[in-house]
């Protein structure tokens, strides 16, 4: 019987250790969260039965165990509700009683070799839980000193024998990061290397879109293209505009163009019919040939950059060669005019002797054009700011347009000669339109490739048209006709008038920048003006009506249209 009582403590101790081992599997087999573990009664296990000997640490081979310096654990006897996390439930287990004399050799409760797990919010007070099964153990044996710098062990005072702290693991030196300048920037690594264009295929290299922008040079304010012509920033046009294309050197530009233009037919009047047969009308003044006229235009300007936008001042002048057309009307029966010449006289003779029953009528027209513009221009930079194939320029400024026209109607009396001044007489009208005013306009561009674009340039202006007119009636030797006292005054009749006028111009074409500083353009131009005085409208049916002649008719219009080709250079 005494031997049986001797075995009871041993059995209880074994059961307690087994339960302790089960409780140590906190992360792998948590107890039933509904039934938290209970602390056994002090009577169940005798304090004397608590083993004081060193016990080996059980470790899981698949997970390395981090060993820490053991410290006394306070608050023995506290209970812990494990997290509710869907883990397999275990039966309640019994924790061993606290040691009556805790020390580093024999702590009050088994220590863990892992950091204390922090419970989630709304849990019970934290309790150290070991992720791996361990038994209560004193400090681990000293580890062999690693190579490299180490920290000397320090002595820690304890209620029992002193224990040396394990040496700390050496800290591996961290590599020094490379400076920012040593690493390539994303733009450098992503941007393709510019490739030179083949020397034997210049045309294709100009037409092909480029994927590389051009560096800024003179007049640089940050508008540099970095991509293709569709969405890669400024194209060659914007770059060359302010000297940004390769080889560019400035913000000045000049252009020269060749023009070939013609005008619409004016409102003419009948000048001749068959003598003795007024039904047979022979000629009308609008039938004078309006030949195509050659001309030229020069433009000079300076651009001032402002980021991706620029503005500038430019001046241009264009003119057309003087157009002269002439026709002679004859008939076997002679020619007469439907204009009323009577009662005008020339050197006391009836003026009809020169115009009715004449040997020939000769009509001649001469036109002359001049245009001057001084404008403030600007570029909005769609390609650079909005990544668009569309571009938009604007302009505003002063414009002067001059249209001069002269119409001459001469008649050779029967049996006379053109070489004898007294044998012929003439009616001339010389009118000049001077338009001064303000205009606004724009240029819309559609970029087809990196170096080719289509453009449309409309302009519109309101002008004051100062008109000067001179009407003359004279003989070939310069003797002027008179009204024979019918109306006051005489010839020539000179008058002037100011008239509101409108002028619109549209240019359509294509521009090809075949080099960094050079571009060529070809297009079509149309110009229309209203409120214009025409020479045909100043000849009245009654030549004797001087007051009517002095009142200038300004209800005419002028239309010029034709082609142009030009070259522009940025410097």
Give the helices and strands, then pairings:
Elements: H1 2-23, E1 155-156, E2 163-164, H2 186-190, H3 202-207, H4 236-241, E3 252-263, E4 270-274, E5 277-284, E6 293-306, E7 309-329, E8 335-336, E9 345-346, E10 349-350, H5 352-355, E11 360-379, H6 382-385, E12 390-412, E13 424-447, E14 452-475, E15 493-512, E16 518-532, H7 546-550, E17 556-570
Antiparallel strand pairs: 1-2, 3-6, 3-17, 4-5, 4-8, 6-7, 7-11, 9-10, 11-12, 12-13, 13-14, 14-15, 15-16, 16-17
Corresponding CATH superfamily of the largest domain? OPCA outer membrane adhesin/invasin
Please give the radius of gyration in angstroms.
55 Å
Q: Give the helix proportion (percent range).
A: under 10%
How would you describe the shape? elongated
Q: Report low-confidence residues grouped into runs of 5 or more.
A: 18-62, 73-78, 150-158, 205-237, 240-249
CATH-defined topology of the largest domain: Lipocalin
Quickly list its features:
571 residues; mainly beta; Lipocalin; 2 domains; 10-stranded antiparallel barrel; 3-stranded antiparallel beta sheet; 9% helix; elongated
Structure characterization notes:
This protein is mainly β. The protein folds into two domains: 139 residues, no CATH class; 323 residues, Lipocalin (Beta Barrel), CATH 2.40.128.100. 9% of the residues lie in helices and 37% in strands. It has seven helices and 17 strands. The strands form four sheets. The chain has a ten-stranded antiparallel β-barrel with strand order 3-6-7-11-12-13-14-15-16-17. The protein has a three-stranded antiparallel β-sheet with strand order 5-4-8, with no helix packed on it. A hairpin with a 2-residue loop joins strand 4 and strand 5. The protein is elongated. About 18% of the residues have low confidence.
């Amino acid at each position: 019987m005494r031997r049986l009582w001797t075995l009871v403590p041993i059995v209880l101790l074994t059961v307690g250790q087994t339960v302790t081992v089960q409780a140590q599997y906190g992360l792998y087999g948590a107890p039933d969260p509904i039934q938290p573990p209970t602390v056994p009664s002090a009577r169940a296990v005798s304090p004397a039965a608590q083993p004081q000997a060193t016990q080996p640490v059980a470790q899981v081979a698949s997970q390395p165990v981090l060993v820490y310096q053991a410290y006394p654990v306070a608050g023995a006897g506290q209970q812990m509700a494990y997290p509710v996390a869907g883990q397999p439930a275990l039966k309640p287990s019994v924790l061993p009683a606290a040691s009556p004399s805790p020390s580093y050799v024999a702590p009050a409760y088994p220590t863990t070799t892992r950091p204390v797990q922090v419970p989630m919010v709304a849990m019970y007070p934290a309790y150290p839980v070991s992720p791996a099964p361990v038994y209560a153990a004193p400090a681990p044996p000293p580890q062999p000193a690693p190579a490299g710098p180490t920290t000397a062990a320090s002595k820690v005072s304890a209620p029992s024998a002193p224990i040396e702290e394990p040496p700390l693991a050496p800290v591996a030196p961290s590599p020094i990061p490379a400076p920012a300048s040593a690493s390539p920037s994303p733009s450098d690594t992503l941007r393709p290397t510019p490739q030179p264009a083949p020397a034997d295929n210049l045309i294709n290299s100009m037409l092909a879109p480029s994927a590389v922008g051009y560096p800024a040079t003179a007049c640089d304010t940050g508008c540099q293209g970095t991509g293709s012509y569709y969405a890669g920033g400024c194209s060659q046009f914007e770059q060359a505009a302010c000297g940004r294309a390769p080889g560019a050197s400035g913000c000045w530009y000049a252009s020269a163009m060749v023009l070939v233009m013609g005008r619409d037919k004016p409102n003419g009047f009948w000048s001749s019919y068959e003598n003795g047969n007024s039904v047979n009308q022979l000629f009308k003044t609008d039938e004078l040939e309006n030949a195509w006229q050659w001309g030229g235009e020069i433009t000079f300007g300076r651009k001032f950059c402002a980021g991706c936008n620029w503005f500038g001042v430019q001046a241009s002048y264009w003119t057309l060669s003087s157009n002269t057309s002439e026709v002679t009307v004859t008939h076997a029966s002679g020619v007469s005019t439907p204009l009323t010449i009577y009662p005008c006289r020339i050197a006391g003779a009836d003026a009809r002797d020169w115009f009715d029953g004449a040997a020939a009528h000769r009509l001649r027209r001469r036109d002359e054009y001049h245009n001057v513009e001084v404008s403030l221009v600007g570029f909005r930079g769609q390609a650079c700011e909005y990544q668009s194939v569309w571009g938009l320029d604007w302009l505003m400024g002063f414009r002067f347009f001059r249209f001069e026209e002269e119409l001459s109607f001469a008649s050779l009396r029967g049996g006379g000669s053109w070489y004898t001044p007294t044998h012929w007489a003439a009616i001339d009208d010389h009118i000049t339109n001077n338009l001064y005013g303000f205009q606004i306009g724009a240029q819309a561009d559609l970029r087809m490739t990196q170096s080719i674009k289509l453009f449309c340039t409309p302009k519109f202006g309101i002008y004051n048209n100062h008109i000067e007119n001179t009407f003359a009636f004279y003989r070939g030797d310069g003797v002027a006709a008179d009204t024979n006292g019918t109306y006051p005054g005489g010839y020539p009749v000179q008058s002037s008038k100011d008239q509101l006028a409108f002028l619109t111009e549209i240019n359509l074409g294509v521009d090809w920048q075949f080099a960094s500083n050079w571009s060529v353009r070809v297009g079509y131009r149309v110009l229309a003006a209203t409120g214009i005085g025409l020479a045909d409208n100043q000849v009245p049916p009654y030549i004797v009506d001087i007051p009517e002649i002095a009142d200038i008719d300004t209800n005419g219009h002028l239309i010029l249209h034709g082609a142009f080709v030009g070259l522009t250079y940025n410097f």
